[in-house]
Amino acid sequence: MNRLLSLVALLGLSGLGINLSAQQTPSQTPSQAPAASDSQASPSTETPPATSPDSAMPQGQTDATNSQPSARAFEGKIQKSGSELVLEESTTETPYKLDDQDKAKKFEGKDVRVMATMDPKTKQLHVVDITRVDTR
């Protein structure tokens, strides 16, 4: 009876672990795998390695096939370049065109952090958010 209950509990927890690993990022999935491999039953030891790559692969494929990369931070100063406002990145002094001129207008001449995705072909930043950075 105890073996049956243990087996049912183990299968239930394995199913829960598989469900959670499918919902989490690949970096969080390996932290769950050791907990499942601590069990002494061999099916649970074989199941997490089979499900971890499967759950990580669709996310990897999604990232590879996703046309827009995730947003990242660019730091620099909003400046005029001709008739447009651009972000001149502070570390590389590279000017980036900004797609949202209205958001940028409020920060002209200021040091800012721009959360944006960059179009690799045009080097234009697709602005998600602009925040002022205090430089002291």
Topology overview:
Blueprint: H1 2-23, H2 29-37, H3 42-65, E1 72-81, E2 84-89, E3 95-98, H4 101-105, E4 111-119, E5 124-132
Parallel strand pairs: 3-5
Antiparallel strand pairs: 1-2, 1-4, 2-3, 4-5
Description:
44% of the residues lie in helices and 28% in strands. With 136 residues, it is α+β, with helices and mostly antiparallel strands. It folds into 2 domains: 64 residues; 61 residues, OB fold (Dihydrolipoamide Acetyltransferase, E2P) (Beta Barrel). A 5-stranded mixed β-barrel has the order 1-2-3-5-4. β1 and β2 form a beta hairpin. The longest helix has 24 residues. The protein is rod-shaped. The relative contact order is 0.11.
Shape: rod-shaped
Number of continuous helical runs: 4
The total beta strand count reads 5
What is the overall pLDDT average?
A: 73
Are there runs of 5+ residues with pLDDT below 50, and where?
A: 28-33, 41-64
Provide the descriptors you would attach to this structure in a database record:
alpha+beta, OB fold (Dihydrolipoamide Acetyltransferase, E2P), 2 domains, 5-stranded mixed β-barrel
